[in-house]
Fold this protein.
Amino acid sequence: MSKEIQEMMQDIGKRARSASRAMARASSEQKNQALLHIANLVRQKTSEIQKVNQIDVERSQKNGQDTAFIDRLTMTPRTIETMALGLEQIVSLEDPIGKMTALKKQASGIELAQMRVPLGVIGIIYESRPNVTIDAAALCLKSGNAVILRGGSEAIDSNTVLAQIIQEGLAAAGLPKDAVQVVTTTDRSAVGEMITMTQYIDVIVPRGGKSLIARLMAEARVPMIKHLDGICHIYIDADADLAMAVRVCDNAKTQRYAPCNAMETLLVNKAIAPEVLPELCKIYQDKGVELRVDTLTRSTLEASGFKNLVDATEEDWHTEYLAPILSIKTVADIDEAMNHIERYGSKHTDAIITNNKMQADRFLREVDSASVMVNASTRFADGFEYGLGAEIGISNDKLHARGPVGLDGLTSLKYVVMGHGEIRT
């Protein structure tokens, strides 16, 4: 690592730490004003954002990035408007900072409570989604934190212009611009410095592929809230409403292929496989989805005249495709389905389609994932859909936060004691 990169990152860290104190004392009104300013600027500068984003897109296309990657990178008027709506939704949410809970009086006379407080400085390392720059910054600001954003080199131009918009909104509300900083170098050594800056950064949130997470798990000294794979399953139970199953499973796979909450593996109870698989798989093939199937599924589909099926391998059950590819397995019962999810799942999001309450309750209790669903598309595993506003990420961890990480996930609790001159005897 060059001395220049090290000094740059240290300076960013110092300025973020200083700004975090101002953010901790900022009023809800100030923070909301900043977010509304940013939302207005995002809308006003839609054309400018798209123009700059196109530079990133064209560069990535020339570098041979695949369709799913380009989809995550591209900012359309719709995605830009969604960012603005996310900002406004966060404004409408209750500010958690300063909220007191569990107030009680002890026998000694002291009064004890817990106060919700910001984490401090949050470092976010992400790859090809420039909307993360807005979404993550907004959540960090509302929860009273300062944030250091290090996006991927492929989105450097988009992230830079969005950071300028955020800082303009902060200044308009009388908040320090250093509360949101984007690392403008594409040198990877900046990440190495960032993940060891324990004196300035309180937590790292990595949003990226396996290689990024693996590197951070090996090298980071700053605690992490991490998101690994999104290998999401839906199990169609023997007692499922078949029309519902078709509708939900179609949506879970094909509404968008690139997000981490898209279904990657479909599990179908053998009792209803001959009824539901032909109708559902015709929809998939008509939409260009490649089907990777086990032996029983192949037999069922070939009996209905299906062709162009691919034999699923052991690796397929472990794979997050983020593409129009789906693995399908026919299972004997809910136990085999849950065992498959336990073995191959990533503890992100898994769902069951059933009208059997006992089966639904078992699935909810026994499947150890951040989001577990009954009769709903896995695509709902999202901070916006959960009413959290934009999310900073979806955590597969159990500590400190789990599932879509919104405002509360970016805060902590501290004990507050109110006394009246009591002394301990």
